[in-house]
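Working notes for the structural subgroup meeting. M.R. asked for a predicted model of this chain before we commit to crystallization trials. I am recording the input and output together here so anyone reviewing the notebook later can reproduce the run.

Input as submitted:
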Amino acid sequence: MSGSKPLTVVVVDDSLTTRALIAAALKRDLRVKVVGTAGTPFEARDLIVRLNPDVLTLDYEMPSMNGLQFLEKIMRLRPMPVVMVSGRLSSHQGLVEQALRMGAAEWYSKMALGSGEDPFAGLGDAIVRAATTKEQPAVSAGGSLGARVLAATKTGAVVGIGASTGGVEALTDVLEHFPKDCPATVIVQHMPKQFSESFARRLDRIVKPDVRLAEEGDVLRPGLVYVASGGERHLRIRGGARPGEYVCQLVTAPPVNGHRPSVDELFYSLAATVGKNAVGVILTGMECDGAQGLLAMRNAGACTIGQDRASSVIYGMPRAAFELGAVDTQLPLSAIGPAILNLCERRSLETYP
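Returned structure, recorded in C-alpha cell form:
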C-alpha cells in the first residue's frame, strides 16, 4: 500500500487495556491508522457515524450486547469490513463460522499475554485483507457454508494440509466442516504405510467429501480429498495438461525432516504450482516438518493457517511455522475448517468473474 492513504480503523473492545494494546500494535503498521476506540457498541455506533472508518475491529465479549449481535446490526444497517477479535475462539465452538456467515470479513484470535509472542502481531494483515475483500451479502446464521464455496470450485483452489502427532483426530475435525463439493484438498499425515489406507477409509465414512489415497496421475477435483500414503514416496502436486489443472505426483526420494511423505515436499510443490490459489494449513505435530514449505506458500501469495498452541496435542510443527513467519493466522482447531472455506471463497471472489 506504498504511497496510498492508510486504512482508518475503529477498535471496539470492552477492555481499556486491550484497546490500548491494539492501538499500540497498529501504530507500528503504516498501512493502518486507528481513528477511534470504543468500549461499548453504543460508543462504537456513534464513532462509525462520525468517523466513517474503513474497517472495524470488534470484540465478542462486550456489555449489554455481544459482538455477534452488534455485527448483525452493522451488516443490516451499515455494511462494512469487520475483523472479529476474540479470546473465545478456542473455547466457543462455531463462533468463527457464525461470524463469517453473518458477514465478518476476517477473524483474529487474541494472543495470550506473557506467552513471549507480540500481542496482536498480524492484526494489521487481517485488517488489510478485510478491507480488500469484495463486499458480499451476509447470509443468515442458519445458512450453509457449502453454498459459499461453489465459486471456489471453479477457480482451481487447492487446500494443502500437513499434520503429525494428534493429526488423525485434528484432520477429522477440520474435514467435518467441509461440504460435499469442497475445494480439492491434499493431505500429508505422518503415519506408517499400513495405516494409511484404513485412515483414508475412516475419513471417507464420516465426512461429506470423498476421501481416497493419492495415486500417481490423479487430477485434483472439487469434492475430493487426497491422502498421501505413508512410508515409500513423497506426494507433490504438478501442473496438468490444461491450464488450472493440477495432478498428484508420487516421488521416490529420501526422507525430508525424517519423514516420507514430507509436509514440506507437498507445500513446496503447492507454492511452485498453485501459488496464490492455494491455502496451506499446518496442524498439530512434533518438530518442524512443513514450516519451510508453508513459508514458501505464503511467499507465493497463498493464505496460510497454523493451529494454535491451546488446541494442539503437540505444538511443534505449528510453532516452528509460526516462529518462521510462515503463518498468516493462528486459530484453534474448531475454527480452522470454516476458516479454510472462507479463504477459498475469498480467493474465488478475487479471481472468478
